[in-house]
Every structure is written in structure tokens, then in C-alpha cells.
Amino acid sequence: MIWLEKYKMLLIGGVVTALVVFLFISKPKEELSAGGDAGLPGVMEEKSEKPFEMEEHEVASGPLFVDVKGAVSSPGLYEAKEGDRVLDAIDQAGGLINTADEKQVNFAQKVHDEMIIYIPEKGEVVEEALPAMAAPSSTQAAGKININRADLSELQNLPGVGPAKAQAIIDYREEQGPFKKVEDIQNVSGIGEKTFEKLQESITVN
């Protein structure tokens, strides 16, 4: 019986020792497992940011180009940036000339790519507030050229009109205002009756 009691105590001691050793060994594994799990959200978070960065890259816009026409110092094609206003584009074109009709221009409107900004002259009638619409075409449906709106290159398409006469028409228009009737073009230096006879069927003032 004494031997059995000793054996029983040794058995209990061995079980307790084994339990302590087991707990000691298993504890680092749990911490390692917890540490590994804690790292996963960080990895997932890093991956979730990449699609957002790609989306920002996709929506990035390039340069914008606007065509400024009409009563400005230097009509032409100008580069703009996102957020620019019509006023910024006009400044790039050298500003308005004296005959420009500011009342018909929305200076605060934001520009967009391929936009045409047409600045009318005083006395010139347009159908809508500018520049929300495209610039009025200088070539009418009947094939006539509007001498109040045509630029230098368009005027040279008229019979008997070269670079010098085309520039003279523009200079007269800027100094005297828009033509009231087609016959008024004869007031331009270098354009007499013979030239007028050649081009009267090809021009309009409306």
C-alpha cells in the first residue's frame, strides 16, 4: 500500500509537470499565430490602396486646347488647363479689342477641350450667350461668307481677295464696326466696283 501511495504521487506529479510543459510550449505558437493574424489586415489594407491609385491615374486629364475667335487681339488656338475660365483664354489671346461686345460674353464659364470661344463685336447679334455655343460659322448654308465674322484665311477664299485685301477688310471691321450691308465692303481700301462685282454673290453680313 505504501508503494501504491508513492506511485500515485509520482503519477500525479508527472501529469502536472507534463501539463506545465505543454502550456509553456504551446504559448509561443499562439503568440506567433496572433502576430500572423495581426499582420493580415495591414497586407489587405496595402492591397486595397492600389486600385484607388490606379483610378486616380486613369482620371488624370491632359492639356486642353481652345480656339479663341472674333474681337480679340490675337485670335488662335491656345492651351488651357483644367479649371481655367473664358477670361483666362481671352487673356492668352491678348485681350479684347475696342469693338468687342463684353455684354455677350460669359467670362466666368469654365473652358473645355476643343471649345470655340467667339467674341462678338458691338452691334453684332448672336443667338445665344457666348461662349456656351460654338462660334457662328462664317460660311452660311447658301455657301456665302459672312464678312463680319470671317477670319483672314476664310476671306481669302473670296474671288479677287488676297492676303492684303483680307487684312484690309478685318482692319476696317475693327475700326468702323460690322458691315451693315454687303455694299459697304466697297468702303474698304483696295476694293472697288469691279472687285465688288466679283464677290457680291459670295458674301453676306448676316
From TrEMBL:
Pfam annotation, one family: HHH_3
Occurrences of domain Helix-hairpin-helix DNA-binding motif class (ranges): 153-172, 183-202
InterPro entries: Competence_ComEA_HhH, Endo/Exo/Phosphatase_dom_1, Hlx-hairpin-Hlx_DNA-bd_motif, RuvA_2-like, Soluble_ligand-bd
GO BP terms: DNA repair; protein secretion by the type II secretion system
Gene Ontology MF term list: DNA binding
GO CC annotations on file: type II protein secretion system complex
Regions crossing the membrane: 7-25
Domain of life: Bacteria
This protein's record includes keyword Membrane: yes
Protein keywords: Membrane, Transmembrane, Transmembrane helix
Name by which UniProt lists this protein: Helix-hairpin-helix DNA-binding motif class 1 domain-containing protein
